[in-house]
Specification:
Helix content is about 45%, strand content about 15%. It is of the alpha/beta class. Helix 3 packs across helix 13, helix 5 (about 110-115) packs across helix 11 and helix 11 packs antiparallel against helix 13. The longest helix has 26 residues, at about 25-50. It starts with a helix and ends with a strand.
Length: about 375
């Protein structure tokens, strides 16, 4: 016991290792400087790639396979390039309108090609679940939603709120399996809402039934006339800057005996993580919460069960997206991306290649997805 205390006391003075919240002032400042230097070097590589530097995919992946295990295992604090990554912000969400412009309001035809667009499985911008034998992207997304159904304990007749419902894939699939389930979708993206509104006019879509209601707006401003049996949120909390405020809001929408399932990219390192590249080009103010972050916020909602989904699942999903993205160039290159298409293509190739490889490093044991079942505290 005494040796453990001595080790902890010594470690707080050593930069880059262990928990940043316990560091001495000098060790903390030194670590932040080193994290900034690493981020600048990564951004230099990204900018070179975007500018036309040819790096074979195999070489790119080899660099990450060599470097990321060192960072995950021994230097995790270097993976937080900005100060805001390490703590909650004052706002429920940051840069939400900017996020819509640079990410979710891009041409729908491009997303359809990259993510897939089938009669029941609409584009879904989160991981598939491959560990139960899925052989393709569509099956992996169906298996992932089936897992959500089981873990949230969805029953026929439930009224469910889907916070950040994307293009309506999850509500559509679940309503196809439960004839009396009702859904309310809450989404800030106008482009995604327009997609769902078209489906709501399509008699072959389950979104066209009276069992689906769409609310376009922000969580902080949302109000509903009735409380929900279940709430689910898939792939949204990477964009939420304040878990405390978000859980307080969700709790206010939940029946006294209701359940919430949060699905989120998570990291099993002492601190939260982010990427300077994705912050600048893909997900403004996006962060990956530490695997213990959600359970540590138990004021309004408490975690009663949690699971870790190995990162190999997201690796396979992102690899499938990259293959589909590459295969669709001829049909999507004339769309309006708000910039030169060649530049857009290289930004997105770097993004899909970068994240797809990072999730596979360390056999997916450090960077994957967390699922949290919550009830009223």
């Amino acid at each position: 016991m005494e040796s453990t205390n001595i080790f902890s006391d010594v470690q707080k003075h050593i930069p880059i290792t262990g928990d940043m919240s316990s560091k001495s002032s000098i060790a903390y400042k030194t670590t932040r400087l080193m994290a900034g230097a690493l981020n600048r070097s990564q951004m230099a590589l990204a900018e070179a790639y975007i500018g036309g530097l040819e790096i074979p995919d195999a070489v790119f992946r080899s660099l990450l396979y060599a470097s990321m295990p060192v960072l995950f295992k021994y230097c995790p604090s270097l993976l937080a390039p900005y100060e805001w990554v390490l703590r909650e912000s004052d706002f429920l969400a940051e840069s939400s309108q900017e996020l819509m412009q640079v990410q979710y309001d891009l041409p729908q035809a491009m997303f359809n090609r990259m993510l897939g667009n089938w009669p029941v499985i609409y584009p879904k911008y989160s991981t598939g679940f491959w560990q139960h034998g899925a052989t393709n992207l569509k099956e992996s997304q169906m298996h992932m939603i089936d897992q959500v159904i089981e873990r949230l304990g969805i029953e026929d007749g439930d009224h469910i709120l889907d916070f950040g419902c994307g293009w309506g894939c999850v509500p559509n699939y679940i309503m196809s399996k439960f004839p009396n389930v009702r859904f309310t979708g809450l989404n800030l993206s106008h482009q995604q809402c327009e997609y769902m509104r078209q489906k709501m006019q399509d008699l072959e879509s389950y979104l066209s039934s009276e069992r689906f209601t769409l609310y376009e707006g922000d969580l902080s401003e949302a109000q509903f006339s009735e409380k929900f049996d279940k709430i689910l949120s898939i792939g949204v909390f990477e964009h939420v800057g304040n878990l405390t405020h978000a859980f307080q809001k969700l709790a206010s929408f939940l029946k006294s005996d209701g359940k919430v399932l949060i699905h989120i990219i998570t990291v099993r390192i002492p601190n939260n993580m982010s990427s300077g590249f994705t912050h600048r080009y893909i997900f403004p103010h996006g962060r990956y919460w530490n695997h213990d972050a959600v359970p540590s916020h138990n004021r309004d909602l408490k975690t009663v069960e949690r699971w870790y989904m190995n990162g190999i699942n997201y690796h396979k999903t992102l690899t499938a997206w990259l293959e589909r993205f590459d295969a669709s160039q001829a049909s999507v290159k004339t769309l309006d991306y708000g910039m030169d298409y060649a530049r857009f293509r290289r930004i997105w190739r770097f993004y899909l290649l970068l994240l797809g490889t990072i999730f596979a490093t360390c056999d997916g044991e450090y960077n994957g997805n967390g699922q949290y079942l919550m009830t009223h505290a």
